[in-house]
Design brief:
It contains 14 helices and no strands. The protein has about 325 residues and is mainly alpha-helical.
């Protein structure tokens, strides 16, 4: 227990550090005197930059990273597959189709989010509807249906990019690689992150047992069918909200669960909040680098999540056995 508390405390400190860096770093440096004015509540240019631009973006990045990481933990536990990631059910593909349609029509802001969330929700309903079929809903059938829907959405994405005028291509590509620059309202992903953790943590022990096998979990009194449907739905909805807010950011939901598991073990009661902290901190740090490395130009944040995370994952993997 002391080791667990130490690990969670370290991840919490890392989160605070990444958020502090996100608020402080940028094309405009914030001096100590300006920070004092901001803390006093004075209305200055620095205060507008920090409170209206950097803070919402940093909070959105944290919430989306945490949602992707938690969803990845849940998918890997339910499917018992270390290669499972949040996008395996095709939700990201549906959101991508919706978002690119909005960009192609010249829509942005709230309408872009509506189109992306609508596409994600449509893909989610399609996957669960087709996987249910004649009532013989199985894990394998759900996985295969998700893969096929994702492949179909990928084809539609390529078609939309092919048909798009050149003026729209940059926005489309940035959205597909993950982009937090258009994020202005962090509350939807933050609120759902809280809802997700409140709904999932009470059944975290059952999810841990489920990861050891359905027969074992049923023997220990777990209602496997009800638990799996509940967790699948919550995880898929979390993915839809994260992708709607930040675009299709890869890597976080696949590798952060493994990184966290190497640090905390496989007890979902600890793993889930730890993954949320690490995933959020990683995405905030990556986004800070994305907007500062070649400022005023910005890089796709999804590229940097891979560049940051792959070496760290390989280093930890080389020091311990694979989870």
């Amino acid at each position: 227990m002391p080791k667990t508390l130490f690990g969670l405390s370290g991840l919490f400190a890392l989160t605070i550090l990444s958020l502090g860096a996100a608020l402080s770093m940028g094309s405009l440096e914030i001096s100590l005197a300006e920070w004092t004015e901001i803390l006093r509540g004075e209305e200055t240019l620095a205060a507008d930059i920090v409170l209206k631009l950097r803070l919402p973006r940093a909070l959105s990045g944290f919430a989306c990273g945490a949602l992707l990481a938690v969803s990845g933990v849940l998918m890997q536990a339910l499917l018992r597959n270390p290669l499972a990631d949040p996008y395996i059910l095709g939700v990201s593909g549906g959101a991508s189709v919706g978002a690119l349609c909005a960009i192609l029509l010249g829509l942005g802001g709230l309408l872009l989010d509506v189109f992306a969330f609508g596409g994600a929700l449509a893909a989610l309903l399609l996957v669960f509807g087709l996987a249910h079929g004649d009532g013989s809903w199985t894990q394998t059938r759900l996985l295969l249906t998700g893969v096929m829907v994702a492949a179909g959405c990928g084809a539609l994405v390529m078609l939309l990019i092919t048909l798009a005028p050149e003026a729209r291509l940059r926005g489309m590509l940035f959205w597909l690689m993950g982009d937090l620059s258009q994020t202005s309202n962090p509350w939807p992903p933050l609120l759902f992150l809280g809802v997700l953790l409140i709904a999932i943590l009470p059944v975290a022990r059952e999810i841990t047992l489920l990861g050891q096998g359905m027969e074992s979990a049923q023997t220990l009194g777990v209602d496997v069918r009800r638990l799996r449907r509940r967790v699948y739905f919550l995880a898929a909805l979390a993915i839809a909200i994260a992708v709607t807010s930040a675009g299709a950011i890869g890597f976080v939901g696949l590798v952060v669960p493994h990184l966290t598991r190497l640090l905390t073990g496989n007890d979902q009661r600890i793993l889930l909040p730890a993954a949320a902290l690490l995933g959020g901190a990683l995405l905030v740090a990556a986004d800070t680098l994305a907007r500062t490395l070649i400022a005023p130009e910005q890089l796709p944040v999804g590229v940097l999540t891979a560049l940051l995370g792959v070496p760290a994952f390989l280093f930890l993997l080389s020091r311990r056995d694979s989870p």
